[in-house]
Write a structure and sequence with these properties.
The chain has 5 helices and no strands. By secondary structure, the protein is mainly alpha-helical. Helix 2 (about 50-85) packs antiparallel against helix 3 (about 95-125).
Length: about 160
């Protein structure tokens, strides 16, 4: 029985020693993982495929925002044409024209939402150091929230 208690005491002692060593080595382990994570981020950032992807993504988002602005402006023109043709009082318009106008209103809201989403993504990515490193200097740093101003960037960069 005495040997059993000595064995049990040894097992508990080894457990406490192991836990103590774990606490002592924990800061080193955390630091080691932090360094490895930093190396992984740097490797991924300068990876040629990621660099090319980031470079092209800025161009695609910029062109997408410009296309959404054009869609909004064209839809506004179409809506104004209907008003000029049939008058301001939509209750006097033929039903099919009212339906067309309603569809244009829905389309323009969708275009505006898509424009805002594209601008928010572009601007957020532009502020990230690991993404901004690969953005062309021929692109604006930030895109305007107002779609009417995006043409200004085309001529003032």
């Amino acid at each position: 029985m005495k040997i059993f208690f000595i064995g049990l005491a040894i097992v508990f002692s080894l457990g406490f020693i192991s836990a103590g060593l774990g606490l002592i080595t924990l800061p080193g382990h955390v630091a080691s993982n932090g360094v490895q994570t930093t190396h992984d981020v740097i490797d991924k950032t300068i990876n040629a495929n990621n660099a090319l992807f980031n470079y092209e993504e800025f161009f695609n988002k910029y062109e997408g925002a410009k296309m959404q602005a054009i869609n909004i402006k064209n839809t506004e023109k179409s809506m104004q044409t209907l008003k000029d043709t049939y008058g301001e009082d939509a209750t006097k318009w033929p039903k099919d024209v009212r339906n067309d106008y309603s569809n244009l209103q829905q389309n323009i809201e969708g275009y505006k939402m898509m424009y805002q989403k594209t601008v928010q993504e572009y601007n957020a990515d532009s502020q990230k150091l690991n993404r901004n490193l690969f953005k062309s200097k021929s692109l604006p740093y930030m895109l305007p929230d107002d779609y009417k101003l995006i043409d200004w960037f085309e001529y003032h960069m």
